[in-house]
Design brief:
- The strands form three sheets. Strands 1, 2, 3, 10 and 11 form a five-stranded parallel β-sheet that branches. Strands 4-5-7-6-12 form a five-stranded mixed β-sheet, with helices on one face. Strands 8-9 form a two-stranded antiparallel ribbon.
- α4 packs parallel to α5.
- The protein is built from ten helices and twelve strands.
- It is globular and about 45 Å long.
- The two termini are 13 Å apart.
- It has one domain: TIM Barrel.
- The protein is an alpha/beta fold.
């Protein structure tokens, strides 16, 4: 039986996926990973802009750092950690999980985790997959995360999407018993129910594409329905002057470049309208009894979990 969430007010979790514009999955068909070092990087400058903003507003956030970024810019990771933010893993290469073998996923995830822990000198307990690519086709990844010592994951988006999504999975933080019997806490990306449809309300491209009033209303609705929420963005999303990538599809260009100039002003408004903290802060504010325990197996349908 699903237990009720705590009524204790909890902050929204502010999260940043620390990657550069040339890492995104939408450009993988036109930018080969071996050419990444040839592209002008913006990740240090844009991440520091976010750090300055968070410092001004007194917000602590969770930074999901791509291993490639940590390897190339270790000083940036130390700066994030020294300013009191939470360090979590975004994998190493930004390859979609369901396009990796379990062996490759394990090697890359371990590599990223060790890099971050060596640089920040702090345990890395949280993980987020590239483009939320833990889906029904890659639930095996949860066993590997648990094996590697991750305590929580934020990779499952309970919506329909062409690249990701488990639309029948729970919408509130919940504990997963994996196919191999491991245990891991899942903090799904935020949605709000509207006319029976789950609307994405977690940030990122949705935050840029929706008008601000709609993003705010959906987060307020999600809070009322779920009592907790998680918000995300990428450093490149506050940079309207970033280099343009030739050869990308019209859809990819629209998703990536639309409203970049509006993201930072909207983010400032959002931080005035809501209280934010790290993923750790948010989960700590919930009682242990808040988390539904479910079992995922590769063949399991999740239609009974409508959240």
């Amino acid at each position: 039986m699903t237990q009720a969430l705590s009524t204790t007010p909890v902050p929204l979790a502010m999260t940043v996926d620390v990657e550069d514009y040339f890492h995104v999955s939408a450009f993988e068909g036109v930018i080969a990973p071996e050419s990444w070092s040839q592209w002008p990087s913006t990740v240090e400058r844009n991440t520091r802009r976010l750090l300055e903003l968070f410092d001004e507003t007194g917000i602590k956030a969770t930074f999901f750092v791509l291993g490639w970024v940590a390897e190339h810019y270790p000083a940036l990771i130390r700066e994030i950690q020294q300013q009191g933010h939470e360090i979590a893993s975004h994998g190493y290469s930004h390859r979609l999980v369901y396009r990796q073998s379990p062996a490759v996923f394990r090697e890359e995830t371990l590599r990223s985790k060790q890099l971050l822990e060596d640089i920040a000198q702090t345990p890395v307990r949280g993980y987020r997959a590239a483009s939320y690519s833990i889906t029904k086709a890659s639930l095996w990844a949860l066993d590997i995360l648990a094996e590697l010592g991750f305590q929580w994951d934020s990779s499952i988006f309970p919506v329909y999407h062409d690249r990701y999504g488990m639309p029948d999975s729970p919408t509130r933080p919940y504990r997963i018993t994996t196919a191999a019997g491991a245990d891991i806490l899942e903090f799904p990306l935020t949605t709000a129910r509207l006319f029976g449809y789950r609307m994405p309300a977690a940030g990122g491209g949705y935050f840029r594409l929706y008008p601000y009033w709609l993003s705010r209303w959906l987060l307020e609705r999600a809070r009322a329905q779920q009592q907790t929420a998680i918000f995300y963005l990428h450093p490149w999303e506050i940079d309207a002057a970033q280099p343009r990538v030739p050869g990308a599809s019209r859809l990819s260009r629209f998703r990536h470049y639309n409203n970049l100039e509006r993201c930072l002003p909207r983010l400032r408004r959002l931080m005035r309208d809501f209280k934010f903290g790290t993923v750790h802060d948010t989960l700590q504010a919930l009682t242990a009894q808040s988390f539904e325990q479910i079992q995922f197996t590769p063949a399991q349908a999740l239609s009974r979990h409508h959240g």
